[in-house]
Amino acid sequence: MKRTTISQIFADQDHFGGRTVTVCGWARTIRDMKTFGFIELNDGSCFKNLQIVFEDGVVENFKEIAKQNVGASFVVTGTVVLTPGAKQPLEVKAAAIEVEGPSAPEYPLQKKRHSVEYLRTIAHLRPRTNLFSAAFRVRSVAAHAIHCFFQDQGFVYVHTPIITASDCEGAGEMFRVTTLDMENPPRGEGGAVDYSQDFFGKSANLTVSGQLNAESFAMAFGNVYTFGPTFRAEKSNTTRHAAEFWMIEPEMAFCDLQGDMDVAEAMIKYIINTVMEKCPDEMAFFNSFVDKGLVERLSHVASSDFARVSYTEAVELLKNSGHKFEYPVDWGCDLQTEHERFLTEEVFRKPVFVTDYPKEIKAFYMRLNDDGRTVAAADCLVPGIGEIIGGSQREERLDLLEGRIRELGMDPEDYWWYLDLRRYGGTKHAGFGLGFERMVMYLTGVSNIRDVLPHPRTVGSADF
Amino acid sequence: MKRTTISQIFADQDHFGGRTVTVCGWARTIRDMKTFGFIELNDGSCFKNLQIVFEDGVVENFKEIAKQNVGASFVVTGTVVLTPGAKQPLEVKAAAIEVEGPSAPEYPLQKKRHSVEYLRTIAHLRPRTNLFSAAFRVRSVAAHAIHCFFQDQGFVYVHTPIITASDCEGAGEMFRVTTLDMENPPRGEGGAVDYSQDFFGKSANLTVSGQLNAESFAMAFGNVYTFGPTFRAEKSNTTRHAAEFWMIEPEMAFCDLQGDMDVAEAMIKYIINTVMEKCPDEMAFFNSFVDKGLVERLSHVASSDFARVSYTEAVELLKNSGHKFEYPVDWGCDLQTEHERFLTEEVFRKPVFVTDYPKEIKAFYMRLNDDGRTVAAADCLVPGIGEIIGGSQREERLDLLEGRIRELGMDPEDYWWYLDLRRYGGTKHAGFGLGFERMVMYLTGVSNIRDVLPHPRTVGSADF
């Protein structure tokens, strides 16, 4: 048997019209009209279903097929018939149908609308629904688009480590990784747990960012990027936070903050254009059933320049907006999601980079501006999401970086190799982090991060 | 300043000859010939260096440049001069050179050969050497080739979870992931650690494989693949084991073991061909300095059919070989690396799939053959490495799978969702796992896994 995918048939209708094919897939619906029947077959190769018509007397096991349950898998051999004018452009008239695997009567995905909350409890089956089929295909296409974007420009992909023995970023709560016996861990003289006996000979955690490691590779390859999982052990039970998520972190030598924003903007446009081109059916679905303005909004973003505004100006805009915020805004405070969304949704009505934040609210490695009180950071805010990218030019001046580390009560010794990068041929450099799930939410209009993660890990939940 | 990369100049010599360019990079060597000097500049955009000639009187800060240390970074503006007949096809005559970042006198990468063991202690600098520059670029190109191979055929990329609350695979030792206070964890009534108070509400680990999750997506999308980090807490301190490594795991519905091997073989050939085409300088370097027969061997593999032999036949071949093995071989025993390498290096002299292993030495999910004692497994063995791929057709028959789970003393309840995939439209399906680092070792001839991992994590070591 030579199998043809449904995507191949739809992509080349003239070729397949009149030909005999064998298609394999799962029934989304089965209708028994007594002397004939219809199967809406989906094989996962594309969003669309293929209509199978089967007739008593032609298909010899008609009764067996007609009584199958939704979700059953079939191998169908038949002729492709073009049906111009009909709802679908073509169908397959079955000559033979084989039940590959039946579907038990209690199959949870009967033909009715289920809540996303319910579907999360059957994460092993939800990719068979329109919503999740579309979301996870867009996720896959977007991931590949990101690789192509960077690889085509000569960026080197670096797999930065997942397990780290440092907490250099110091960003939020981390997960411990251990092989010690939790019931009875080895203890040192003072009674404290003796991590020298742990697997790595010291205390270890899951990474929160690959940036510092990526910087060391940027100082060799010029342009690099990471694309891997990162972790936060924050107990935030929101629609935007997950304990495990994927991040893209490019890092570029000989690049300043303007260049950094140029790359970020070009990347977002490239991802949008690629997904709109490769997933038209999925995007039409999201536009109809999830977020009415989606396609228009994304098209607008892909074709317009992102705004750029300094933090100082942004704070003025917010203060003078007359809008009542839950959290008051003033120079020096961190922007809340409500502020970010107001800026991008109400003030600029498109993506906006907010730059040059007060140093106190940003990470130690960001480059100090000449004003002595702001750093060369740039966060990209997008409508419906808020912050999607956080970037900065990095502090390349050894004395300033060391000073900042000390100022924050950290020990420069812990950063010996990171500081080395400034001792030996340091360069101006910059980079950013894109939260991949937020990007997929932005692309699809899906509003809960749990519904763009194949198997979401959140506080209290690590099923499947 | 519009920056030109060295790779652009070498790729389009006719265009750049005679033109003024600005290049940025790091000095691999600097030679001061009193009235003029040479810099071998590397910018990481390609393996090759660019020769910069700078002359006293032309470059106004000649003395400053001439006294710079190896490793310093420069911004050079000058004219590209084609030099047919010379060792290098072109050089840049500098008009102006700016020191972007000096390199301190104790820079560890002076121009001499360092041992790989020493270079592992400066993992933040080793990508600046020829060996690691080549290895990590090949790694990046191979990773992208894998994405392209699958995406071009319509496979959906699935990010299977890193943190899992099941140990479904039961494969070897796992790392615990926890936010409990190790010094004083909460305990239940009997005194045992109370994992219901841990972050996920239960005991959690780092994944050893995304396969079971990938299967659930294959039952929706047909063809899927994973590419992500996996973990083993085995204390094996060998040249082939790391605690953290990357795996590729395709999973295909409506596919049997023959189809599985076809995809695996096509994938390996595609990776080899892509790397040979995109990294000619790197491959020439490995062929000269790391593994003399490398390019010839890889070319041979890319153009010949892989052998296929059953485990039963393979055992006979080994027993009748007259070769003295450290571990004796007999039907029923697991093949050791020495056996695997003998088969691929001495018997077949090319990659070989060994199929249909005794069920006792393989995982519970592999499909039982009609003989009742072997399973439809296929391991791919390659010269110099041994096993690089482990694959199988999966058991799609609910009763047999459940029986096997019980037989092994496991609880079918723990596998409820995995078994569901056989209840609701189950299909014949198959997949495999490729150890990415082993693939990179195979491509480069590098013999220690620590030298193809950007920041290796092994027992007792998680630096950088």
UniProtKB/TrEMBL annotation, chains A, B:
Q: What is its EC number?
A: 6.1.1.22
Primary localization class, coarse: cytoplasm
TM ranges are: none
Query: For this protein, what reaction is catalysed?
Result: tRNA(Asn) + L-asparagine + ATP = L-asparaginyl-tRNA(Asn) + AMP + diphosphate + H(+)
Give the source's domain of life in one word.
Bacteria
Q: Which GO terms describe its biological process?
A: asparaginyl-tRNA aminoacylation
* GO CC, any one term: cytoplasm
The Aminoacyl-transfer RNA synthetases class-II family profile domain sits at 131-454
The record ties this protein, via InterPro entries, to: Aa-tRNA-synt_II, aa-tRNA-synth_II, aa-tRNA-synth_II/BPL/LPL, Asn-tRNA-ligase, Asp/Asn-tRNA-synth_IIb, NA-bd_OB-fold, NA-bd_OB_tRNA
Q: Which UniProt keywords apply?
A: Aminoacyl-tRNA synthetase, ATP-binding, Cytoplasm, Ligase, Nucleotide-binding, Protein biosynthesis
NCBIfam families to which the protein is assigned, alphabetical: asnS, PRK03932.1
Which PANTHER family does this chain map to?
ASPARAGINE--TRNA LIGASE, MITOCHONDRIAL-RELATED, ASPARTYL/LYSYL-TRNA SYNTHETASE
Q: Which family does it belong to?
A: Belongs to the class-II aminoacyl-tRNA synthetase family.
Q: Would you tell me the protein name for this molecule?
A: Asparagine--tRNA ligase
Q: Which organism is it from?
A: Lawsonibacter faecis
Q: What is the lineage of its organism?
A: Bacteria, Bacillati, Bacillota, Clostridia, Eubacteriales
